[in-house]
Amino acid sequence: MTSLTWPGAALDRGRLLRLLQEYGVYAALVVLFAIAVGLDGSFVEMSNIRVQLFQVAPTLLVALGMALVIGTEGIDLSVGATIALAASVVPLYAGYGLFAALAMALVLGAATGAVGGAMVAFARVQPIVATLSLMIGVRGLAEIVNGNSAKPITESGLLDLGSRSIGGVPEMAWIAGVCALLTGLLVRRTTFGRQLVAIGDNRQASRLSGLPVRRVLITVYVLSGVLAALAGVLIVGHGAEADPANQGLNMELDAITAVVVGGTPLSGGRVRVLGTVAGALFMQLITAVLTQHNVHTSYTQIVEAAIICFAVYASQERGTR
Amino acid sequence: MVQQEPGPGSDAILEVAGVDKSFAGVHALREVDFHLRPAEVHALIGENGAGKSTLIKVMTGVHRPDAGTVRLAGREREFRNPLEAQAAGISTIYQEVNLVPLMSVARNLFLGREPRRFGLVDTRRMNREAAEVLGRFGVRVDVTRPLRTLGLGAQQMVALARAVQVEARVVIMDEPTSSLEPKEVETLFSVIRGLKEQGIAVVYVSHRLDELYAVCDRVTVMRDGRVVHTGEIAGLERLKLVSLMLGREMSAVRDKGSTAFDSDSHELRDGQPALRAVDLTVRHRLHGVSVDVHPGEVVGLGGLLGAGRSETAKAIIGALATEQGSVEVEGRAMHRRSPASSIRAGVVMLPEDRKAEGVIPNLSVRENISLAALPRLSRAGLVSQAKQDEIVTFFMKRLRIKASGPDQKVGDLSGGNQQKVLLARWLCLNPKVLLLDEPTRGIDVGAKAEVQGLVDELARDGLGVLLISSDLEELIEGSDRVVILKDGRVVGHLAGDDVTEDGLLDALATAPESPDLAAAPEPPDPATTPESPDPAERPQPAEPAAQAAPAASTGPQPANPADPAGPAPGEPREHPAKESQS
Amino acid sequence: MTSTALQPAPTPSGAGSDERAARVPVRERVASQVQRHGALAVLVLVVAIASATSSTFPTWNNISSILGSNAFVWVLALGMTFVIITGGIDLSVGSMFALGGVLGAYGSRHGTWLAILLPLAVGAAWGSVQGLLIAKARMAPFIVTLVGLLGLRGLLQALTDEGATTYLVPAHSWFRHLGAGTWTPVLIVAALFALGALLLTRTRFGATLTAMGGNEHAARLMGLPVARAKVLVYLLSGTLAAGAGALGGARLGSGVTTIGVGYELTAIASVVIGGTLLTGGAGSIGGTVSGVLLLAVIHNLIDHYFSQYGSAFTDTVNGGFLAVVVLLQTLLSRTQQLE
Fold first, then answer.
1. How many CA atoms lie within 13 A of C173 on its CB side?
2. What CATH number does the domain containing B453 carry?
3. For residue B485, what is the enclosing H or E element?
4. Residue extents of the structural domains in chain A
5. What domain range includes position C103?
6. Given phi > 0 = left and psi -120 to 50 = alpha, else beta, which region is B138?
7. Which residues does the UniProt record annotate as the domain ABC transporter (chain B) (predicted)?
8. Which of B180, B319, C137, C210 would staple B184 via disulfide (CB 3.0–4.6 Å)?
9. How far is B479 from chain C (nearest CA, A)?
C-alpha cells in the first residue's frame, strides 16, 4: 500500500516544483508588485516606475548575455569589468560623437568576450576561472585607461541616451527591451540559438551531431561582452560621468541572480529570456520596496542572498531527479 | 593449501545467496547465488548488462541488495560502503584505474592508511614500504613520482598492490587486463597465483576467454541478471561458454527468426564501397581494423564485449583519435576526420549510449530531429519553421514516432522512440552510410521490430549500413555479411550461407588468441590482408570492377584464417545470399 | 611462457614500466616544474631586480611594511589553498574577513578571549553551513559561497548600523598586542602557514583533501571520508578568514566595515599563481607563500613607481598573471590527458 502511495506523493511534489520553476518568478513578481502598491499607492506613479526602469535596464542587458552563457553551462564573471572598460573609453571618444564612443566600447566588449571565450573553447579552461582572471585584470585596465578620478561627460548624445524618454518610457528601457526581444528570437528562432542550447544540454551528443561547438561558445562570450559594454555606455550616459572604479561593481552577481531567479538552470541546456526579464525586474522591485520602506541595505542584501540560495536550490532539484 | 572439492557454500569465504537488486523498476539481479571458495580464482563472465557489475557492487558495499544475503567467512554482513567491505577484507580493483593520478605512487598505495608517527604521516617509512611492496609486483619506480607518470599497466599494478595490501581475503578484479600489455598480463597472472597460494580468493571478471582458461579455476556465467552456470572451467568447452553467455544454444537456429529483418539479402550495387576503413588503430583498443560497406549492404560487426566494435564505429567518424588508418567515403579519402566532417561526407553514427551521446534530453522532438540539419533548414541563420515542420512531420510519421507532439521533450520519450528520433536526425541529412551501434538495446519489442524493419528498408534504398549488435539473432538476420572482431582485431568474416549463429559462435570461440598472448607463432594478421585467401578476386580499389567487386570484398572465408577447423567454407559466390535459411 | 608465469615473484615487466615512465615528454616536465616553482623563481627575480635598481626597496622599513600590513590577509590564501585543492572555491572569505574584524573589535570590549573566540565561532559556524550545503545538498561551491559573500556583508552592515557604528578595540586591551608591530603578525601567520603545511602534507586529512580534488570518485571508492572532509575544509576556510579578520581588527584598533572587498579574488589569484591547480588535486602551501609574497612585492613596487594608478595596475598584473598561470595549467593537464 505504502509503496503505491509514495510515487503519487512524489509526483505531486515534483509537479509543484516544476510549476514553481516554470511560473514561480512571474507569480512572485505579481505578488511583490501588489504588495508594493498596497503598502504605498504612489508606487504606481509614472515617475517612480521610470526610476525603476532606469535602474533595471543595464542589469537586464548584462543578464541577457549572462543567460546565454549560462545556457551553455558556463558563467561570465567578467561582465562587471567589461562595463568598467566601456566606461573608461567613453570619455576618450565622446568628442567624436555618440556613435564613435559606442562603437569603440562595443568593440572592446567583444574583444574581452573573445578572450574569455577563446580560453573556454580552445584552451578548455573552466569558464569561472577564465572569466575570473578577466574580471580582475580588465577592471584594472579600465582604471588605468581612465586615470584616478571619475570624468564628467558632457556629450549631449550620450546624456540624452541616459535620460531621454520615448512615450514616457526611458530610452534605456526601450533598448533593453529590444535587446531582450532579439535575444528571445536568437534563442528560439536561429540556428545559433538552438545549437547553443543543445551544447549546454549535452555537449558530447552535440559534438557527435556535428555542431560547431567551439564557434558557438566563443560567439556566446562575445555577445555577453558586447551586451555588457552596451550596458556600460548606458550607465555612463545616465550618470553623466565615467567612473570605472565603481561602475559595474558586483554587476556579475546581479546578472547571475536575475538569470537564476528567472529559472534558467546553472547546469545549462535552457535559456529563459522572459524569465530573465522577470528575474531582473523582481530583484529591482524587491530592492526598491525595501529601500523605500527604510529597510536597511544590509537586510536587503541578506534577503537577496537568501533568494539566490533558494532559487538555485529549487532549480537544482529538477536536475538531480 | 589448495582446497579439495569443498562442499557447496559450507566453507565458502564469500557467499552471496538469493540476492535481488533492481534500479527504478528494472531488475539488475534476480535471485543470484554465488559461492567463492578460499584460494580459488573464480571467473565471473557475461555480456553487457548481464549483472556482473551490479553483483560486484553488492559484494563490495557500493549497492545494498533489495533481498538476499552476503556472507563473509560464514558471517552475514551488510556493508554500507566500500570502506566497510574493505575493512572486512574484500578489495576491489576496477577496470579504469581508480587512483589519484596527481598524487605520488606511494601516496596512492597508502591513501587512508598511511603509517603514522606521533600522529603525523611517516613519509620516509611510507616511501620505503611502498617501494618494497611494488617491487614484489615487478614495478620498480621512484615511488615519490606522481602516479600519472607511470604507464597504464604499472598504474594498474599499483591499484592491485593497494587492493591486496589491506589484508584482503577476497580480491575482486574487474577487467584488470583491459589496459595491460601482454608482458604485464603475465605479471598479473603470477601475482594472482601468488595470492592463491596465500589462500586468498580472487573473483576475476574478464571477457577474454584465453585469460580465463589460463588463470581461473571455476567460472560463473551470468545473463539477464541471473546466474546461468557455475562450474569448473577445465573441461568446459569454449563453444559452450560462449553460448552460455549469449544464451544461444548451438544448432538451435530456427528456420525463420523472430526479428523483423527480411531474410533475403539485399541486392548489392556495383562499384566502389560507400565506406572503406583501412587499418584503423587506436592504442589499446583497435589494432588495424579494416571494414568495407557497400551501398545497399548491411555489414554486421560481430564480437564479444570489449572486442572493439563501438571503437571501430567511433574511429570511423573521428570521434576517437586514431594512431593510424584511413577512411574513404565513395572513394574520396577523408583527411582530418571529425564528427562534423564525417557528417558532411555522409557518414553518420547512432551511438550506443543514447543518453550520454545521443539525445539532447531537454529539447523537443522537433529540435532533436532537426539539430544536425539546422544549417540546411535556415536562411541567414534564421531557422525556417515551415521547412523544419515539414521534415519533422514527415519523419515522425515515417518512423512512427510516438510522442504527444513535436514539442514534447525527448527526455520524456520511451527508449524506442528516442532511438527513432535519433535515426530521424540522421535520415533527414540523406546520409550515405549509417553506423548503428546497438540500435535496439533497451527498447521494447514492438519498437525493436520497427527499427529492424527500417534498417532493412534503408539498406534496400541504397544506404550502406554497419550494424553492431550484441543480439546474435539480430546480427545474423540483419546482416548480409559479418566481420568478426576480437581484442581489437578482425579475426574472421562470414558471408553468404555462413552467416549463421553456428558460424558466428564457432568463430568467436575458436578465433586465434591475440598474437602477443598466444604461445603459438603469430598468425597472419587478418585485418591488414582481409582478402588474402582469394587474391585473385581482389579488386583494384581505384577501378570500378563492376562484376567482381561485391563478391571480392565480401569474399566468404573461413571464420578463422589460421585455423582450418573453422566452419566449412562455402563456395565463393558472386552474390552471397541466405536463401537456404528460408 | 606459462612456466615463467608460475613463479609468484617479480617478472621483468618492471623494466618496461620504467622505460615508459622515462618517456614523460620534456614539454610536460618543463610545464610541471614551472607550475611548481614558477612563482618562487619569479619572486626571486623580481626581488633581485628591485633591490638592485631601487634604494628604498631593500630597506627594513619597506620590508616591514610589506610584511606587517599584509600578513593577516595572507591567511585567506592559506584557507583558500585547502579549498581549491579539493576542487572547490570559497568566495565568502573577503566578507568573512571584514566580519571577523568587526566581531573581534566588538568582543574585545568584553575581554580578549571573547575577541578571539567570537569571530572564530561565527566563522566556523558559517563555514560549516556552507560545507553542508555543498557536500549534502550538492550545490555548486561557487553559488553557495557567493551567497556567503553577499549575506555576510549584509550581516556586517546590520551589526554596525549600516556602518554607522564603529567598534573600537579598547586602548588598554591586550588584544591590540596581537596585531601590533611587524614581528607579531608575521610570526603568527608564519606559524599558521607551517601548521597548514603540516596538515596538508603530513596528515590523513590533508591526503584526503588532495585525493578528492584529484579524483573524487576514486577517493570515495578508496573509502576516504569525502563528505566529511568537504564540510571540514569550508569550516577551516571560514574559521581562518574570521580569525584573520579579528587579528586585522586588532592591528587597526577597530572593526573596519569597508575592508575586505575583493580580497577573495586576490586570495584565489595568489593560490593559483603559487601553483595550486584550480581544478584541484595538487598544490602546496609553500607555493601559496611564494604566490602571496610575489603579489605583495609587486603591489609594493607598483605603489612606489606608479603611485598615480594605485591598485588598478596591481589588479591588471594580478589578472594577467592568473590568466597565464591558468593557461599553463590547462596545457599541463592536456598533456596529461593525452597519455
1. 28
2. 3.40.50.300
3. strand B481-486
4. 45-320
5. 37-46+64-338
6. left
7. 14-249, 268-512
8. B180
9. 36
Total number of domains constituting chain B: 3
C-chain residues near A300 (CB < 8 A): 154
pLDDT band at C83 (very low <50, low <70, confident <90, very high): very high
Backbone torsions φ then ψ of B251, nearest 5 degrees = 60, 25
| Beta pairing, strands B41-45 & B201-205 | parallel
B436 and B414 inside one domain: no
* Cell numbers representing residue B490 in the block: 578482425
Grid cell in block for residue C284: 602546496
Instruction: Out of B187, B197, B214, name the one closest to residue C13 (CB).
Output: B187
The count of domains in chain C is 1
Phi, psi of C324 (to 5 degrees): -60, -45
B456 and B546 within one domain: yes
pLDDT beyond 80 at A316: no
Quick one: average pLDDT of B325-352?
Answer: 90
Verify whether the Cβ–Cβ distance C6 to B193 is below 8 Å: yes
Residue C203 belongs to some domain of the structure: yes
Rounded CA separation A169/A49 (Å): 9
Closest partner CB to C327 (pick from A123, A302, A306): A123
Interface of C with A in 277-336 (CB under 8 A): 278-279, 308-320, 322-323, 326-327, 330-331, 334
Nearest by CB: A205 against B317, B343, B358: B358
Task: State which residues form the domain around B309.
Answer: 275-346+431-581
Identify the pLDDT of residue A215: 94
Cell matching residue A194: 538552438
Q: Are B365 and B311 in a shared domain? A: no
Complex-level ipTM beyond the 0.85 threshold: no
Interchain pair C5, B186: CB under 8 A: yes
CATH architecture label of A45-320: Orthogonal Bundle (1.10)
| CB within 8 Å: C316 and A130 | no
Q: Which of A156, A160, A152 is nearest to A238 (CA)?
A: A160
| β strands within chain C, DSSP E | none
* Domain-embedded: residue C51: no
Helices of type H across B461-538: 472-478, 501-510
Q: Is there a single domain that holds both residue B525 and residue B388?
A: no
CA distance linking residue C90 with residue C75, whole number of Å: 13
CA–CA distance, A269 with A280 (Å, rounded to integer): 20
Burial A87-117 (b: 16+ CB within 10 A, else e): bbbbbbbbeeebebbbebbbebbbbbbbbbb
pLDDT value of residue B422: 93
B411 & B485 share domain: no
Contact list, B103 vs chain C (CB under 8 Å): 207, 210-211, 214, 281-282
| Residue B411 at interface with chain C, using a CB cutoff of 8 Å | no
A16 in contact with C at a CB cutoff of 8 Å? no
